[in-house]
C-alpha cells in the first residue's frame, strides 16, 4: 500500500497522530525513526492490516522479498474497558467526536483516571517483530510501520483503541448500552415523623394509688444529673449563654427531683373535683 508523502506532513496530522510519533521518538528511537520516515515516503510499506489488536505489515527492504512486521500493544481487560467506556458515555462530547473521526484531547484523562495509558507508556509496552536480519528493534521496517500507523490513526482513531483490545463496533455498542441504561434512582426521603399527643382529660396525670416501695428509687438532690451529663454541648453561638442555660436546667432538675422525693414519701393526694 503506497502512501502519499504529503499525507504525512505535520500540518495535516491530528494531535493523536503526532502524539503517537512523539511518544515513540521519546524512547530514544529518533534516528531510526528518521530513516523509517524515508521508507514511508518511498512507499515501501506494501500492506498494513489489523487482526484483532495485532498489526501485520509487509515492508519492502533491500532484499527482493518484502519483510513481515507484526506488532501489538498490551490489551486492556474487560473491567478496565468497562470503566473507560462508562466514563466516556457520561459525556456526549466523546460520542460526537468519535463518530466524527476525532479524539478530544481530554480522552487521555479518562484512561489516566482508570490507571491506564492509551498511548505506550514505555518502549516495553510495544511488542514488535520483523524477520529482517537487523538485530536492533525497532529496525527500519518496524519504524516505517510505526509512522504509517500514525497516519491510519488520523483517518480512524478507533484503530488506536483496537490496539488496546476494543474495536469500533464494540466501543460504540457499549457506549450506547451505557447511555441507555438508566441510572439507579435515589431513594425518596423518609416521611417526616410527627407526634400527636393523646387526647386526655384533666385527670390523666393523676395517680392516687401508693407506689410499691421496691419500685421507688430516691436520688438525693444535688448529685450530677444523669440526663444532663450525657448531653452534648448545647449548640449556642455564645458559650456563656450555653453555660447559663445548662445551669438553669440543672436547677430545674434538682427542683423536680426534690419535689418527686417529697411526693413519693407523702400520702397520695385526693383527686380534685
Automatic annotation (TrEMBL):
PROSITE patterns noted in UniProt: ZF_SWIM
Domain SWIM-type, chain residue ranges per copy: 122-150
Record carries keyword Isomerase: no
Keyword Methyltransferase: no
A molecular function GO annotation: zinc ion binding
Keywords linked to the UniProt accession: Metal-binding, Zinc, Zinc-finger
PANTHER family: SLR1429 PROTEIN
Identification of the protein by name: Metal-binding protein
Amino acid at each position: 500500500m503506497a502512501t502519499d508523502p504529503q499525507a504525512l506532513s505535520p500540518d495535516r496530522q491530528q494531535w493523536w497522530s503526532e502524539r503517537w510519533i512523539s511518544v515513540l521518538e521519546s524512547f530514544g528511537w529518533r534516528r531510526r525513526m528518521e530513516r523509517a520516515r524515508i521508507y514511508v515516503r518511498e512507499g515501501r510499506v506494501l500492506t498494513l492490516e489489523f487482526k484483532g489488536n495485532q498489526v501485520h505489515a509487509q515492508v519492502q527492504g533491500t532484499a527482493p522479498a518484502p519483510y513481515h512486521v507484526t506488532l501489538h500493544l498490551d490489551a486492556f481487560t474487560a473491567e478496565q474497558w468497562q470503566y473507560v467506556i462508562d466514563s466516556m458515555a457520561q459525556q456526549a462530547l466523546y460520542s460526537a467526536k468519535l463518530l466524527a473521526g476525532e479524539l478530544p484531547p481530554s480522552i487521555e484523562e479518562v484512561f489516566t483516571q482508570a490507571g491506564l495509558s492509551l498511548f505506550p507508556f514505555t518502549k516495553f509496552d510495544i511488542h514488535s517483530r520483523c524477520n529482517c536480519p537487523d538485530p536492533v528493534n525497532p529496525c527500519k521496517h518496524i519504524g516505517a510501520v510505526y509512522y504509517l500507523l500514525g497516519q491510519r490513526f488520523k483517518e480512524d482513531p478507533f484503530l488506536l483503541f483496537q490496539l488496546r483490545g476494543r474495536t469500533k463496533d464494540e466501543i460504540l455498542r457499549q457506549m450506547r448500552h451505557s447511555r441507555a441504561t438508566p441510572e439507579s434512582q435515589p431513594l425518596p426521603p423518609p416521611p417526616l415523623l410527627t407526634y400527636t399527643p393523646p387526647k386526655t382529660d384533666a385527670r390523666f396525670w393523676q395517680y392516687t394509688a401508693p407506689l410499691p416501695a421496691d419500685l421507688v428509687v430516691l436520688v438525693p438532690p444535688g448529685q450530677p444529673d444523669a440526663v444532663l451529663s450525657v448531653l452534648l454541648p448545647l449548640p449556642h453561638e455564645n458559650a456563656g449563654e450555653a453555660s447559663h442555660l445548662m445551669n438553669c436546667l440543672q436547677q430545674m432538675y434538682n427542683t423536680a427531683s426534690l419535689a418527686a422525693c417529697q411526693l413519693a414519701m407523702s400520702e397520695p393526694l385526693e383527686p380534685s373535683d
